[in-house]
Amino acid sequence: MxxxxxxxxxLVIKDNKLLLGLRKNCKGEGTxxxxxxxxxxGERLVDGVKRELYEECGVRALRxxxxxIVDERLPSEMYIQxxxxxxxxEGTITCVEKDKCAGWEWFDINSLPHNIFPPHIPIITxxxxxxxxxx
Length: 135
Known about the structure:
By secondary structure, the chain is an alpha+beta fold. It has helices at residues 45-57, 121-128; strands at 3-14, 17-23, 32-33, 36-38, 60-73, 77-90, 101-108, 133-134. The two termini are 19 Å apart.
């Protein structure tokens, strides 16, 4: 039986720049990823994104809009990534989980680093192409 995981991610965008964190001590160490993670039992998607953004970046999302679903099937498990654009937040972005992230940086959406966390590449790609669903 294939395990199904549900992830929720925030594309924090400001002045055509995307917020990415350099991952450490976790899967994808040394790559840049979006704020996000696994949905908790009984949690609504939008609440999961808000929680992850607060836990990882220390800010509260004020304005979110649905961006996409990326439906990825791997040999042993399936990931359904539900993604939201965060266009407004309150607080100052800080690296809260210093054991998992070396820091948050802003990158021009059209000039991103080459070492993006592989599961987040299609999320960013479909955002840039304005596609709502990818399988």
